[in-house]
Amino acid sequence: MRNIEVNSLVTPIKEALIRVNIDINPSLLSKLKSTEKSETNPLSQEILKTLIDNAEIAESNRIPLCQDTGSAIFFIELGQEICLINGDLTTTINKAVAEAYSDGYLRKSIVTDPLFRRNNTLNNTPAIIHTEIVKGDKLTIHLMPKGAGSENMSRLFMLKPADGVKGLKNCVLETIVKAGGNPCPPLIVGIGVGGNFETTALLAKKALLRDLDDHHPEPMYSELEQSLLEEINCLNIGPMGLGGKTTALAVKIEYFPCHIASLPVAINLQCHSFRHATIVF
Ligand code: SF4
Q1: Are residues 71 and 153 both part of a single domain?
Q2: Of 64, 210, 242, 278, which has the highest C-beta tally within 10 A?
Q3: Pair 169, 243 in one domain
């Protein structure tokens, strides 16, 4: 067994949360720059240029890329040969979130109760934590502050197996058309397919953790990602919903085996303020 002192996780998690809220992901910046060049609609070009300027201002002034600094979402891969000592992981992650949002002057956006007592918790906790036990002796922490604008336009469908690829494409395109400018396009579109009701939603979110420029390792899925991206970019929604051919920058699909009678599909939309990091201990 390998021991990890849970207290040693606080500072790296805190620093990563502050960093990703301020410094734009380099692949995203280069994607915005290349799409600005290829965009033909002058208004869309102007908006893309503004997003690039915004990222540069955030970096040089050390201020967040967006006022909505999000819910703090974590995907943990805990190696089964690790022993976490002198504390518990959930408390530690919440401590790191509270310190990051306070010391980094990030907006605190979490309320205590969704319906009756919408009081701000004042430290952006609790974090949303998904944990998976994996083999080995590493602890991998993927973190993703995610704003509400794009999350609110995300959807889940329970299709019939006969709906197939056409049914999935219709769900994705319908979701993006209905969302319009609300999720702050250009988007990264995370799609989960298979599993069951809750698995497919998690797959859609996990799909957003992939590198912006990667391709699905299986050609069928890689081709589906590409064809969906092309169809989405023909919808003329464009940057911030004001028209143009840059509605999405990437489509990422993750799948899981499912029941013979099911075809769950989830679409998790991610805005251009695409913030995530991975830390390995
Ligand atoms: S959707 Fe994204 S870019 Fe728009 S306000 Fe929310 S976090 Fe910011």
Answers
A1: no
A2: 64
A3: yes
